[in-house]
Amino acid sequence: MSDLFNPTPEHLALRQTLRRFAETEVEAQAAAHDRDEAFNLPLFRKLGELGVLGLTVPETWGGSGMDAAAVAVVHEELSAVDPGFTLAYLAHALLFANNLAVNGNDAQRAKYLPDACSGARVGGMCMSEPGAGTDVLGMRTTAVRRGDSYVLNGTKIWITNGAVSDTELGDVFLVYARVEGAPRSKLSMFIVEKGTKGFSLGQKIKDKLGMRASSTAELVFEDCEVPVENRVGEEGDATLHMMRNLEVERMGLAAMSLGIARRCIEEMNRYASERKSFGQPLRDFGQIQRHIAESYAEYMAGRAYTYWAASQLELLRPGHRLDSDGVKLYCATMAKNVADRAIQVLGGYGYVGEYRVERLWRDAKLLEIGGGTLEAHQKNMTRELRGTDKLP
Ligand SMILES: Cc1cc2nc3c(=O)[nH]c(=O)nc-3n(C[C@H](O)[C@H](O)[C@H](O)COP(=O)(O)OP(=O)(O)OC[C@H]3O[C@@H](n4cnc5c(N)ncnc54)[C@H](O)[C@@H]3O)c2cc1C
Description:
Elements: H1 9-36, H2 41-49, H3 68-79, H4 83-103, H5 106-118, E1 123-126, E2 142-146, E3 149-160, E4 172-179, E5 188-193, E6 199-204, E7 216-227, E8 231-232, H6 238-274, E9 276-277, E10 280-281, H7 286-312, H8 321-346, H9 357-366, H10 374-384
Parallel strand pairs: 1-4, 2-4
Antiparallel strand pairs: 2-3, 3-7, 4-5, 5-8, 6-7, 9-10
Helix pairs in contact: 1-3, 3-6, 3-7, 4-5, 4-6, 6-7, 6-8, 6-9, 7-8, 8-9, 8-10
The protein binds flavin-adenine dinucleotide (FAD).
Flavin-adenine dinucleotide (FAD) binds at residues 91, 95, 124-128, 133-134, 158-160, 208, 211, 216, 366, 369-373, 375-376, 379.
């Protein structure tokens, strides 16, 4: 492999397209949408025109049929400019579209994926609950079979794209629930659309620390009746669906961390040349050199690990837990630390919005929580490594 980060000409072209789009269209709106806590739906739909809303969805269903390395490329490029907007993209492209493409049947794919790939409908995934986050199998949402329907009851929280505005629900969701009587380890998954009776927006969650350009919502299911054909896979299959999808999600979140880190290094590197103190550019001072050099080395280490792990990840096969957890564990904290150093190098200017790095620092913190907390990754990885005496 000659270029780990752009393994084929298609990956390179994808990176160039996304970088151009991010710089010309995403950058200009990022600060305002962060300040206003607003999701930019028209801009999101333009990602459909670029063919990346269904990045990993097979072409038959309107997608681009690309792989995990492409997932890393797109998330890295968008996140270097606007991580909040990128999180909304991730929830749609990976948590909804990829999840359904991998785990759904052809009738479900034909019905929902073309609109997801074009951006006509915004999707999301409902796993977390007020009482169950890391302990996801402790979820309380139930599904009771009644004739040709299931009746869902429960509340989901922190759902990205759960709302598209302060008052309006997102369009379509994959919802995890436990069918009445099923054991703890056997979850099921259902497609639930806006407009379904008993399905409502509890609240759009306001005042987040970061990722404010994505909408986060509480969603309520109250005697919500969904037809049997909306069950994805068989009853009890969804625990595997969830684990498989979380692997690619973590790859996307690790790549988002890389985008944040890269941008922060660029900003502090530039500033250290321009800003003088005691008659010298900041970059001449050893303590500033340490901030820049260590950030670069850590970023490159995380980047190499992420793209290597992406090269190993097959979207249709689970079993990449160790390294999908590993890249997110390493890169999330790396990005937060790099953003912190960037603020330090910029001094007071780093502390205000105009210089971007404070927003990236706030956004970076979410990556230590969403898609699995650091502690969850540590737990999973240590379990995966049990009995491994020698590493490859
Ligand atoms: C902005 C945002 C967007 C999100 N988007 C989505 C989404 O689209 N869909 C969705 O389903 N969810 C989403 N989430 C939810 C996210 O995945 C959860 O917040 C996360 O899994 C943690 O769950 P929790 O918040 O309930 O924390 P908890 O699980 O309550 O954890 C609290 C603390 O305890 C620690 N802890 C818990 N159990 C253990 C243990 N066994 N050992 C050691 N430490 C432990 C955790 O690591 C953490 O530090 C989002 C969250 C945020 C903030």
